[in-house]
User: What shape does this take?
Amino acid sequence: MNHGCRWSTLDLPLLGPALKVRRVRGHLTTIRWALQATPVEIRAHQVARLKALLQHAYEQVPLYRRKWDACGVKPEAFQDLDDLSRFPCVTKQDFREAYPEDLCAASYRHERTHCLSTTGSTGSPVQVLYDRDRALLEIAVLSRASVEMALGVPLRHGLSILLTNRSAIETLPTMEFPQARDQVVDAMAAAHVHRSELNRRQPQYLLTYPSVLLNLAQLVQREGGAVHQPEYIVTTAETMTPTAQRAIRAVFKGELRDCYATTESGCIALTCARPGGFHILAYKAVVEIADEAGRPVAAGSAGRVVLTDLYNLATPVIRYTGVADISRLTTEPCSCALGHFPSLAALEGRTIDMVARADGGTVHPYRLTEALREVRAIRLFQVRQETLTGFRVLIVLDAAQPDAADSRSQAVVQAEVGRQLGAVLGDAVEIRTEFVETIPKPAGTHKHSPVVSLIR
Assistant: This one.
């Protein structure tokens, strides 16, 4: 959280927690309404939120005002959802270059906000601010009450195995409600720790990443022994590949759901018991599928995911393409609690490999992406594990940095990369750095992976 700004009533020792609980309950009321609303009512809600959001962004965020003026479009041009495509898209690079002065709303620069950063799942982290009410909405969406509504079953107790660093969106609940830390285990811990905590706590439902589940499944298959079986498992932040799902299913028998979430927009969509797609949480986000020029594609056609967050006022996210995912909108009927929301087909998105160690253990890839996030001169990167102790790091320097291509600057970056990764991987590994113009992408995909292990 940005602690250098003025306090609010939410931070008062006794009154603050009560006010935050009240706001979370208010958001839960909105969620409950949305689950019972008609598509027409949901659309009207989106339009009302967008009208206010567009005006706010134009008045307070230079990035949007500059881009919209260049295209000759004003907030008043928006009257219905079909008008949203008249506004230009913004990219991840736009966000990186504009943060903070040209991206964050002027009225929130002196408020206490949450400064969040992406994990670098595409190798190029960005930062955004979440205002307090937006943070409390995300907490409501991830709360037990909300999960109960989505699953349609009562839940008793759960456990989260997630990132715990302060810049991760997953830490919003523990930042606003410190007592919630008892329900979270650090995703960076070893798989043995995760299994021990699962067996000790016996949660009915589990929230974690596909890579953590896969690591647990591989541990059980490799070493044997029991592992607690949650009735419901919700994964998030990474793409669940068919290969990973098969390995996980061989060990975990509970109902498996996936949450499509990003740092920039929070939880966007959820799968249901019917395989193959996601239901968009349309009360909090608008998802478009567009071509490279930002124009909506024909119904049922594949294209880029374009996100608009209906609630974040500190860093408005409007027609954002930076998640770099590919999908398509579907109209397949569904009878689940989320079935009246628009649906996305399966995503082509963020896959990430575990890193093998010589002692048979693994290193979570987010430890590497977090380490390289500290090297400011890097725009894109890929860490390639070629042997158990041999790593090659591909780096695209940030052209906006002065003397980015200068050999002395490269030497400084190379030394810092070696220092940061060495602190995670240990002194016994060899790290080779290579400066490149582009990062190669695997055949059949549109994005590169930040961490690739060739150890199979």
Remarks:
- The chain has a mean pLDDT of 88.
